[in-house]
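Researcher: I'd like a candidate sequence for this fold, 217 residues long. If you have to choose between options at a position, lean toward the conservative one.
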């Protein structure tokens, strides 16, 4: 047993924070597994490197993305879709590492959504200055399934809006190891991420990595 400055000390489990019915933040839920999750992400990105997708409107997204699992979320001039093939390689996306699948299952269960079996994991990489403008996630076949999101690395401010784009958005700080679960009435809320400030994290350098687990089909 050795103590590393880079390991977060064990934390007592924190009670879930309910944002609204169907949406809850599990602070630190992924903390103990963070280093292993990032190692698994690195395995994925050797097969399917991060890339900046183009929106249907022709803009380059500032978030860099890749995927693992049976389906991957992609965007290009023709629109948004879930695709079984990585358009850059023509190959299937890397399999979802069991550690990632299990974490998503456990977090969904802790939030009151037992039996979550995601078939898609979108991996988003943010650098300082990267943002994600307000949007809804509407490319999945069945909105009855929740979405599980895992934040790793440098902190971000998440925008939590309403049912309309113009609804006032709340700001929620998301830190390394935090997990958020959205389902039920919260599933189609507008949401986004403010531009990231400069920061460093011992495990990710100047990056935030967000894993978003979905049942896409
Ligand atoms: C709320 N990603 O990839 S994860 C996305 O931090 C996305 O990278 C953000 O929004 C990120 O689409 C936020 C949190 C999240 C994901 C899906 C949601 C929040 C959600 C779906 C419905 C409501
Ligand atoms: Fe989203």
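Model: Candidate sequence:
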């Amino acid at each position: 047993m050795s103590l590393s400055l880079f390991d977060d000390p064990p934390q007592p489990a924190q009670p879930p924070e309910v944002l609204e019915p169907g949406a809850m933040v599990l602070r630190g839920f992924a903390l103990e597994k963070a280093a292993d999750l990032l190692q698994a992400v690195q395995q994925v990105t050797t097969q399917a490197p991060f890339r900046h997708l183009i929106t249907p409107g022709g803009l380059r997204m500032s978030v860099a993305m890749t995927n693992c699992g049976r389906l991957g979320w992609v965007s290009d001039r023709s629109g948004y879709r879930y695709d079984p093939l990585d358009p850059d390689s023509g190959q299937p996306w890397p399999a979802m590492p069991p550690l990632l699948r299990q974490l998503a299952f456990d977090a969904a269960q802790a939030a009151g959504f037992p039996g979550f079996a995601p078939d898609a994991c979108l991996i988003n990489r943010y650098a300082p200055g990267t943002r994600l403008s307000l949007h809804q996630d509407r490319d999945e076949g069945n909105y009855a399934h929740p979405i599980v999101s895992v934040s790793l690395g440098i902190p971000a401010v998440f925008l939590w809006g309403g049912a309309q784009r113009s609804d006032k958005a709340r700001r929620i700080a998301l830190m390394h190891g935090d997990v958020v679960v959205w389902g039920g009435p919260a599933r189609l809320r507008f949401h986004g991420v403010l531009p990231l400030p400069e920061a460093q994290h011992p495990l990710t350098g100047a990056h935030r990595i967000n894993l978003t687990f979905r049942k896409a089909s």
